[in-house]
Amino acid sequence: MLIRLLFASLLLHAPRVFESTASLFFYGASAAVAFLTVLYLVWYLTHRWLRQLVLVQIFVDILIETCLVYFTGGMESLFAAFYILSILSTALVLGEKRLIMVLTALSSAAYFLSSLAAYQQRLNLLIPADPIYFLYGTAMRIAVFVTVGYLSRFLSETVRELSDRLKLSERLSSLGEVVSKIAHEVRNPLSAIRTAAEVLKESTAGKLTGQEEKMVAIVENESDRLTKTLQRILNYAKQTPPNPKRLPLDPLVERTLSVARLNSRVYSEGIRVEKKYGNAPIHIYADEEQFLGALLNLTLNAFQAMSGGGVLRINATEDLRGTKISVQDSGGGIPREK
What we know:
Blueprint: H1 2-11, H2 23-45, H3 50-71, H4 82-94, H5 97-120, H6 131-203, H7 210-234, E1 245-248, H8 249-261, E2 271-276, E3 283-286, H9 288-305, E4 310-319, E5 322-329
Parallel strand pairs: 2-4
Antiparallel strand pairs: 1-3, 4-5
Helix pairs in contact: 1-2, 2-3, 3-4, 3-5, 4-5, 4-6, 5-6, 6-7, 8-9
């Protein structure tokens, strides 16, 4: 709308450039554009039928541009360039591919017909009375319109993608606030669990069996890991990056298996674990907490798929490209229909 008002003010100076016989038209066009812009603004403030508002603006703009092209010389009119602005407006505001091509075709047809009418009435005596020259000149400009319309399709895709990302970012931000509040509520009882595990470990020192001590250690370690996960959630807005380090693989695997075996809903005594790392100890370069979370999910899924027992194979190979880890179970797999 602001650009249109600027255009209306420029039209007031157009009689100095073009023939004085068209002065009345330019003044009338300037007044019409200014009046329509105010009308559009009132419509916009109602917040209703905004898509229809955009379409009305674009179609009326094309009509005004067509009149300007006719009164200012036809095919070589400077105002022919404003058709491009109408096409780009459609791409930026509406972003509909089909509509972009429709308006491109409409702009091309309007330009050709207005140029043809001006040519037949010899409104611009500087243009040679040669049909070939006229067809060549209009065809070149229409080719520009079509090219701009075609490229605007890609522009509309980019605008829509950015808009979708913005909406997703807003939704994630709202979700982050909710999760942050939940994390605050969970962190307090989690701290109590961690403290209770420490007190239990100290008060029963030397009295627990090896398996019991191992289970207490699991409570401590997993409480610490969950605390770090909650802290990452609380730092959601800061977008904390991962902290990768060089880590030995087997201790992480054993820690994951110890946690997974405590889940009685998916683990059964009939499950056997086979590990194959090759000859040398395997190392990984990863964020420890993120890796443990991913490996635990895979292991629990594998145990769940082998409710009647089976074999879980964890294989790892290391070369110059990095470390490849495979988690494979002997369960039934996913049915083809799913």
